[in-house]
Amino acid sequence: MKWLFLLTVLANAGFVAWLGFSAADSKIEKGTVYGPPVSEKIYLIGEEHPDSNVALSTNVYSNVPASTAESVADDVGQAVNSMLKNNAAAVIETENLLCPVVVLERDADRRLVTEALKEEKIAFTQQETTGKRDKFWLYISAPATTAQAQDIVARLKLKRIDSYIISRGDMKNRISLGLFSSQERAEQAQVSITERSGMPVNVYPHQRSVKLYELLLDQPITEQAWENFLQTLDLSKLLIKIEKNPC
C-alpha cells in the first residue's frame, strides 16, 4: 500500500510540472486599440507640448477687445441709472400734482380769475352751482314806531350811510346797513358806522344759499406752478374758496 500511495503522488507532481511548462510556451494575442484619425499627434495632459504658447482652451469672447467690453458695460450702467433717476423724478412730480377747484361767489371775482387763468394759459372749465355761505348782516335795532325808523334812515342819509327799513316779519322796522361775506369786513364797517352815526350797530352772522361759480382745471398742475399763479391774485379782495385737491 505504501508503494501505491507513493506512485500516485509522483504521478500528480509530474502532471502539474507539465502544465507549468506548457503555459510558459503559450503567447497571449493582443487586440488593436481604435483611435480617431488625426493630422496631429495627441498629447496627454502630463506630457509636455512642444509649442508652449498654444492655449489649452479658447475663450469665446477672445475676439472682443477688453476696452470695448468695459465701455459697453459702462454705457449700460449709465442708461440704467438714468432710467432710475427719471422714474424717481416722475414719481415725485406725480405726488406733487394738484387738481384744484376755485369757487367764487361774485361775478366780478369770476371775471377777474378767469382772465388771470387765460393769461397764464391754464385751461379750465366753468360751471354754476348753489351753496350755503357765511353772511354777516349789519343792522340798527328797530325803534318803537315806523316813523322813528324813517327818521333814523334820514339822519344816516345825511351822513352818506346807505340804509333801509325792514318792513315786515319779525325784523320789522330794523334798519339794514348791508350784508357782508367776510366777518372781518363786517366788523370794520360796524366800527365805522357806529362812529359816524353815533348809534349802536349790531352784527348778525348766518348762512344763506347763494349762486356760486366753480372753475375746474382741465389738466393737473404742479404745486409750485399753482402757488405762482395764486400770487398773481389779491386774495384778500376776492370772495373765493380754493380747494387744493391732490390728483
Describe the structure.
By secondary structure, this protein is α+β, with helices and mostly antiparallel strands. About 40% of the residues lie in helices and about 20% in strands. It contains 6 helices and 8 strands; from the N terminus they run H-H-E-E-H-E-H-E-E-H-E-E-H-E. The protein has a 6-stranded antiparallel β-sheet with strand order 4-5-3-6-2-8. Strands 1-7 form a two-stranded antiparallel ribbon. The longest helix is centred in the N-terminal third of the chain and has 30 residues. It is rod-shaped, with a radius of gyration of 55 Å. About 5% of the residues have low confidence.
CA radius of gyration: 55 Å
User: How much helix is in the residues?
Assistant: 40-55%
Determine the structural class based on helices, strands and strand pairing.
Answer: alpha+beta
Task: Let me know the number of strands.
Answer: 8
Low-confidence stretches: 53-62
Quickly count the helices: 6
Strand content: 15-25%
Mean pLDDT figure: 80
| Euclidean distance between termini CA atoms | 127 Å
User: What can be said about the biggest beta sheet?
Assistant: 6 strands, antiparallel
**Sequence of secondary-structure elements:** HHEEHEHEEHEEHE
Cα shape: rod-shaped
